[in-house]
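Whiteboard transcription, Tuesday session. T.W. wrote the structure tokens on the left side:
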């Protein structure tokens, strides 16, 4: 067996190994190693289709590896603190509600969540008033099995809020790890409060 054949067998073994990888970072690292082996094999063996294919696959695997590592960093950062909605403003719609108007009634279908910008909102069924700027309202209903509101939300004065539709929420949940992790933490926090009987400043 020549050294060139050895490189070819090594490259093939590395590709075969990727099918047994269960986590993305090791898989991408092995895939990158196989790309280098196939590039050498294609170049010295003058197998240009193989060479071109792996010259194209190499930057793709490197990019996916960097994206996966960044995803892990984003999730870790999200778990350490709050979430900033500044980058998501463009997905939201600004709405103004008059005093006494209901954002939603208990039992309504949950089709959006609200981010409070100004004015207090009363949740009469659980005797809570939400007034903190940036408080999220309505996320529990979106993730409940029947998609029903668990409480009413009534504006005590004129209220300004940003709304995010259910479709956008789900899209961002899957695309933005920080947002997804924040929602998971928030829902768990609500459930723990329900057990302890201590309401938070912002509820849904």
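and on the right, the sequence the group agreed on:
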């Amino acid at each position: 067996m020549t050294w060139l054949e050895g490189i070819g067998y090594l490259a093939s073994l590395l590709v075969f190994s990727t099918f047994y990888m269960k986590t993305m970072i090791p898989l991408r690292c092995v895939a990158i190693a196989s790309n280098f082996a196939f590039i050498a094999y294609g170049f010295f063996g003058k197998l240009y289709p193989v060479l071109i294919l792996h010259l194209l696959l190499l930057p793709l695997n490197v990019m996916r590896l960097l994206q996966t590592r960044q995803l892990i960093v984003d999730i870790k950062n999200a778990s350490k603190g709050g979430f900033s909605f500044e980058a998501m403003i463009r997905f939201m719609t600004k709405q103004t509600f008059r005093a006494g108007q209901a954002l939603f009634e208990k039992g309504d279908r949950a089709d959006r969540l609200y981010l409070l910008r100004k004015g207090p909102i009363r949740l009469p069924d659980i005797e809570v008033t939400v007034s903190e700027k940036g408080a999220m309202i309505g996320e529990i209903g979106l993730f409940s099995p029947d998609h029903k509101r668990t409480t009413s939300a009534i504006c005590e004065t004129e209220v300004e809020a940003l709304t995010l539709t259910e479709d956008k929420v789900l899209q961002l949940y899957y695309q933005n790890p920080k947002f997804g992790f924040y929602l998971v933490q928030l829902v768990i926090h609500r459930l723990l409060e329900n057990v302890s009987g201590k309401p938070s400043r912002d509820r849904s």
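Someone added at the bottom: The chain is about 50% helix and 15% strand.
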